[in-house]
């Protein structure tokens, strides 16, 4: 099934680049995907270096298209952002994640944290803070159980506004992670003034960390910087054991990637949590 949906996806992207009419009809389908219940969440485990710690997960959105199969977020999130649909979709993701975490907690399943991707327009929307605060209060997860992942591109547009938003979100009990750190626009100069909890080292550094001294040097500098600011560090896109070894040496706190697990369906993630808890 994965293979056939992969082909469908390639087909999709060729059409997307080629034909404006097809592209617009896909936007229309994306517009109605929420009410047609075509979205679901998958959960990619984040493992702490201290193996006895509870698992966390990043929440990743999936669009099950009736004919194209699973469309990857790299294809439809940018479309949603361009066509003003991301706020509604992002609201849905966050509400689902809160509800899911609350329900796992209620069932006694030890899930430390769920992290949720937030697009720049969401973070910069005037009512995002108050709606998020209300959600956290409804589900009683004002203890950092939800972490919002923001990319550096959220900061480029209006760093003052973004950083105020981040601070207010932290005050109501959200954690904030800077995602894909080190690629694109690097906010090094004001990293020490940004209110956040976690730094995610981008996969592009992890890819060659065991091979190229320069990748390792950059990752080491990022980790050292984060540590000096008293932030947690997560490495993403960890695929092989050699990478884990280097990252461990550098002092990375949590690992995420195919080496440990692909993103999992809800039930599979629950099984994994139960199994690792019983060890
Ligand atoms: P991201 O935030 O950098 O998420 C990590 C992506 O890397 C995920 O792809 C994940 O499946 C993939 N990944 C994780 N470990 C490995 C690995 O070891 N090797 C490789 N090759 N890939 C790995 P995915 O699920 O396709 O998501 C792609 C991007 O779409 C995400 O990148 C994120 O920017 C965006 N996205 C996903 N869900 C949401 C959402 O709910 N809201 C928003 N705004 N963006 C989302
Ligand atoms: Ca992310
Ligand atoms: Ca990332
Ligand atoms: Ca990335």
From TrEMBL:
Source organism (scientific name): Pseudorhodoferax aquiterrae
Keyword terms: Membrane, Transmembrane, Transmembrane helix
Domain of life of the native organism: Bacteria
Range of residues in the leader sequence: none
Name the record gives this protein: EAL domain-containing protein
Domain EAL: 23-277
